Amino acid sequence: MRRLFGSVRARATLAATAVVAVALIAAGAVVLLSLRSNLAGQADTVADSAARGVATQIAQGVPYRELDLDEDHPVQVVDRDGRVLAASEDLESISGTGVLDVTPIPSPDARQGEDNDDNEAGEVGEVTWHGQGRATVDGEGAAYRFAQVDVTDRREQTVLVYAGASLQAQQDAVHTAATVMLIGLPLLLGVVAWVTWTVTRRALRPVEAIRREMAAITASQDLARRVPVPDTHDEVARLARTTNETLAALETSVERQRRFVADASHELRSPIASLRTQLEVAAAHPELLDLEGAVEDTVRLQRLAADLLLLARLDAGERPGDGRIDLGELALRESRGRDGVTAGAARVEVTGSRGQLERVLGNLLDNAQRHARSAVTVTVRRDGAWAVVEVADDGDGVPPADLERIFERFVRLDEARARDDGGAGLGLAIARDVAARHGGTLTVRDAPTGGALFELRLPVSIA
Question: What is the pTM of this model?
Fold first, then answer.
């Protein structure tokens, strides 16, 4: 049960059914109240007519004992003192009019129709009251709506005429309507639930297909697979496309990680093997120890390990820090002592990690010196909200097809270059990743001197 109502389809069906049920119950209550009110109004109209008919007879001088009282409507005529002057012949009891007595007293004006023919007719007043009560007529009790009419007879005596109209039709109609609603409501709710369940199942069918495929991908670890995209233009189709884009990005990332591990293993194998060979030779023949070569291999291994560690921290999302660094001073310090490097640096402050930015400038200068014929130029300036560092050399430049490829990890354009001179191919990749982490960019284009010009842009520190 818990699993059933934990599904979107079950919750949607339950919610839709509940909303429709509340709406139908509210609408049914309004209909019943309106029907009851309308029928009560019709009963009031009938009671008004019956009361006025009796009042007209009294006003015209008809004696109370001779009044023509409609057998279909209980009638009660009382004076101001509450004495019953006339009542329907079969009226056995009455409530709701304020006078319970239904037995007329001997009429004091029984001769008014005979002795007062010369008097003017009485006056029939307006309906002054409506109320509800019960009456028993000829042994049958029922609910009635009563109307009260004031009338002045020929003796100028004011009496009250009560006449009732049965509410049986109203009660029957309301009961019938309520019965129809009670029978129809569950049926209609069943239809709503079935339709919602069916429509929701069809709407969620692509989602279930996506879920099954994702489960299969998780089980097989085959990131080359993709989830099915429905031939629609709705949210589910967009979800499927986004899922496939995520899978593609994940596949690329995993493949990149695999290549990274393989390349790192390959790059580490060479200096480690070289160092081991030298140490084994030295152990057997100490006089043949190449101490300088062993130190170079150790330094190279140390640098490669440091580069790999920095890349791992960058991939893990390490924050660059919030220190303020004078980029011009940093460029001058990194340029100092390097052969053929000239620097012109303005004072421009940026926010970030001093160690990472030192690594960026060092990598750019190492790369420029490696490819320059004779000169490397470093320039630091401010361009609006950006601090700009330009490192240019007078070498052969970068082929247009490789302008982006050189920023990939373990990429060396000159494969014939010796490893000791060419490095491991991580410097530019690290430089671009650090620039991106600091909210900046690193690009390359042709230098005015014919070589390559690397441009580093970082946001200027806000004072």
Answer: 0.51
